[in-house]
Amino acid sequence: MAATKKDRLFLMALLAPTILIMLVVVAYPFFENVRISLSNMNIYHIRDWEVIGFQQYAAVFAEPRFWNILMKTFLWTGVNIVFHVTLGVFLAVILHQNFVVGKPAWRILLILPWALPQYITALTWRGMFNYEYGAINRVLTRYLNLPAVEWLTSPFEAFLAVILTNIWLGFPFMMVVALGALQSVPSELYEAAEVDGASKWSQFWNVTVPLLKPAMIPAITLGMIWTFNNINVVWLVSNGGEPNDQTHILVSFVYEAAFSMYRFGWAAALSMVIFVILFTFTQIFLNRTKATESVY
Amino acid sequence: MKGLFGKIGTYLVLAFFAFLSIYPVMRIITISLRPGDQLLSTSLAFIPEGASLDNYRELLFETGFLQWMGNSFFVSLVVTITGVALASTAGYALSRYRFRGKKSILSGLLITQMFPATMLLLPMYVMLINLQLLNTFLGIIVIYTATALPFCVWQMKGYYDTIPVALEEAAQIDGCSPWQAFYQVIFPLAAPALVITALFSFMTAWNEYVVANVVLQDSEMFTLPLGLKLFQSTLTTQWGLYAAGSLLVSIPVVALFLMLSRYLISGLTLGAVKG
User: Fold this and answer.
1) Among all residues of chain B, which has the CA nearest to that of A235?
2) pLDDT band at residue A35 under the 50/70/90 scheme
3) Are A91 and B146 in contact (CB < 8 Å)?
4) Which of A1, A121, A275 sits opposite B97 (nearest CB)?
5) In angstroms, what separates the C-alpha of B179 from chain A's closest C-alpha?
6) Looking at chain A, which terminus has fewer C-beta neighbours within 10 angstroms, N or C?
7) Given this model, what pLDDT does residue A131 score?
8) Using the beta-carbon criterion (under 8 Å), do A117 and B249 form an inter-chain contact?
9) Dihedral Cα B128, B129, B134, B139, nearest 10 deg
10) Which candidate in B21, B46, B132, B274 is best for mutational testing of the A interface (most A CBs within 10 A)?
11) How far apart are CA B39 and CA B52, in angstroms?
């Protein structure tokens, strides 16, 4: 419907409350954040801060750890998404086979990590990674005869622990999206492929994958955004970047700068940088995938 | 591949991943049942020796758990009601009418999903300090509502798109005002999407840790995530309380989620593809 004059008032009434809330709680703080990012606000200047220009941005890029953590954030996002998508699609294809008995029950079991509140998952895995009492080291030493791992106290292992937790947490989402998409794939396509003598593997690549793409691309885009900005898991599993601030991704790094060290201006500038990176990245990704789609 | 080996392999893979999925939950159950003298046990037995419900009793009667649960419930309920009211009306407008600025509103809502946690939280925090509103529920409710809203609006819009416009045109010919046509005809038809929107708003508030950690400072005001984290950080003494609390919090959430997960996904993909 095009809005006629008569409808205008009604339309306004429907939209106004949401727009108002979004302006007050999202747009205003967004521009305020831009202003803070240009200011000298920190713990000594909370009320009497002033705009000083782009110094905070310069400070962000001059921070030696910034580049390191940026790379780590990309690594974190990439590794997570690759595992989420491959595990998710793999399990969906396995579960989708005709002969599998008890599909609803399997699905419920496999969705469980997604259904649990994220902070409980994160804190529980932190407990399981405990050196002495954690279940993971117990299993390693008792059943696999491997040495115990210092999961939370050495930087590499701690980062690995955070990634493992997040992989566990994220595959069900991709699996469910893939399952939904698989249900709409007509089985004749596979029958035709079989008649043509296509192997299982080539059926997967030539029939399943192209048909999954339309559902998976938006899910992957969302998944990348969520993962890139997933402060919960990183913050809770590593207990705020332990050991020695070595397990941060950008968003947890900036959270700490703002709310533990009160470097407000600097944190606001870094927030802007994160946003711009993520925004550019998603635009490129969406354009790329759309471009390949139209080739089909 | 379709032979016996293929089938056995399939079930083995499913069983392996199902085990991985439930194992952490089994650990929580075990730890919550451990009697006080075995809290720090290295045993991997599922039912611990001398299992008892002491942790649950202590949790309910000797800690702030019930208070936190009340706080969380109050905050989540208000967020849910506001979220559903706002998303159902705004989503309707965005689905049914063409007007200038509609595209900007829709893409603006999507862009908010790319904001890092600190982007809005930091100015809000400074604002709350200046207004002396830090440590109040009002502050946190407003932030949660705005966080949940973009997704909810998209969700509702996607669902309304699937309801034929002919329905309210017919209602209007029968003499309904636009509002009546929306409220009496379309709104009830959108019930499945409303349920998902409600669930999503509720979960946003019920499960949130990072914002709460900044805004709520007094343990009287804590929501569940802050309270449970409190137990977990003193691992040596309160591991059992944490486990018992986690179970009590998770069971209703998981049950709800599993009941509704099918709709959640159809809504998710629908909204995304139709966008």
Assistant:
1) B210
2) very high
3) no
4) A1
5) 7
6) C
7) 85
8) yes
9) 0
10) B21
11) 12
Which residues have CB under 8 Å from A229's CB, separation 6+?
Answer: A251, A274, A278, B114, B115, B116, B117
Tens of pLDDT, residues A161-195: 999 999 999 999 999 889 888 887 777 888 888 88
Q: Does pLDDT of B159 surpass 50?
A: yes
d(CA A295, CA B13): 35
- What whole-number percentage of chain A has pLDDT above 70? 96
**What pLDDT score was predicted for residue A203?**
85
Local structure of residue B36 (DSSP, 8 states): G
φ/ψ of residue A111, rounded to 5: -80, -20
Tokens 């006629």 sit on residue = A4
Whether the pLDDT of residue A135 is over 90: the answer is: no
d(CA A289, CA A214): 10
Q: Quote ipTM for the complex.
A: 0.85
Question: For residues B109 and B153, is the Cβ–Cβ distance under 8 A?
Answer: yes
Single-letter amino acid code for the residue at A211: L
Among A22, A120, A264, whose Cβ lies nearest the Cβ of B149? A22
Decide if A116 and B25 are in contact by the 8 Å CB cutoff: yes
- How far is B112 from B80, CA to CA, in rounded Å? 19
Contact B90/A14, CB-based, under 8 Å? yes
Query: DSSP class of residue B208?
Result: -
Please state, rounded to an integer, the average pLDDT across all residues of chain B: 86
DSSP string covering A4-65, please?
PHHHHHHHHHHHHHHHHHHIIIIIHHHHHHHHHHTB--BTTBSSS--B--THHHHHHHH-HH
The runs of H, that is alpha helices, within A147-263 are: 155-183, 187-195, 200-203, 209-228, 231-237, 250-259
Q: Look at B250 and A139 and tell me if their CB atoms are within 8 Å.
A: no
Size of interface A-B (CB pairs under 8 A): 265
Taking the CA of residue B265 and the nearest CA in chain A, the distance in Å comes to 7
- For B123-160, give the DSSP string: HHHHHHHHTT-TT-HHHHHHHHHHHHHHHHHHHHHHHH
DSSP 3-state percent helix, strand, coil across chain A (nearest 5)? 75, 0, 25
Strand partners, A42: A45
Q: Is the pLDDT of residue B83 over 60?
A: yes
Q: Do A30 and B120 touch (CB under 8 A)?
A: yes
Q: What are the φ and ψ backbone dihedral angles of A42, each rounded to 5 degrees?
A: -150, -165
**What is each CA distance from B25 to A51, A222, B22, B203, in whole angstroms?**
50, 27, 5, 19
